[in-house]
Amino acid sequence: MVLDVEKAARWIHRLNGKIQEQKQYLTDLDQAIGDGDHGINLARGFQEAANAISANSYQDLGALCKDVAMTLIGKVGGASGPLYGTAFMKLSMAWKGQKEIDREAMAKGFKDALEGLKMRGKAQPGDKTMIDVWEPAVAYMAGEGPLNGEELASVAKEKMEGTKELEAKKGRAAYLGKRSIGHIDPGAASSYLLFSTLAEVIGEGESA
Question: What is the pLDDT of residues 39-55, one digit of tens each?
Fold first, then answer.
């Protein structure tokens, strides 16, 4: 077992805490190349998601992820709500009826989520978006050998920082062209928080 309902709930609560702490940083990143509302919108949405799952008791991962998805879609403005909402909706479908999952099932869920993000955002690796973190993080999950939380977080961090050197091809940042180079993508930064927090949670206790 890599992830169960209890760990997933802890992941969402801890992710919410990290987003609240980093709200201004995410907003500053978005003010440089986007609409300037990424941190504010995500902080509101994940606080609502944390509140929603606190008010319920879950027997399976799918139901928990579905409530997170619906809350994010309903409460978060801008592009980030539909994107993160899509990701969690794909996770909910992949993990429906499962109280706990192994590495293979976790990787399958995140692969489905990644495909959902690509379809929703029409982005590919190299476009300077959250996909630049999601694609390598999911590839690591699906790889061989033991799943190491520190390695997962390291992959996500390296790829987030790598977006600084990219020219934006999607979203508001694309209008800046070459001027978008030199800035970390805000979606990549929030995606790093998602994966690094997941890495912390799955690293607590048994290894995969």
Answer: 999 999 999 999 999 99
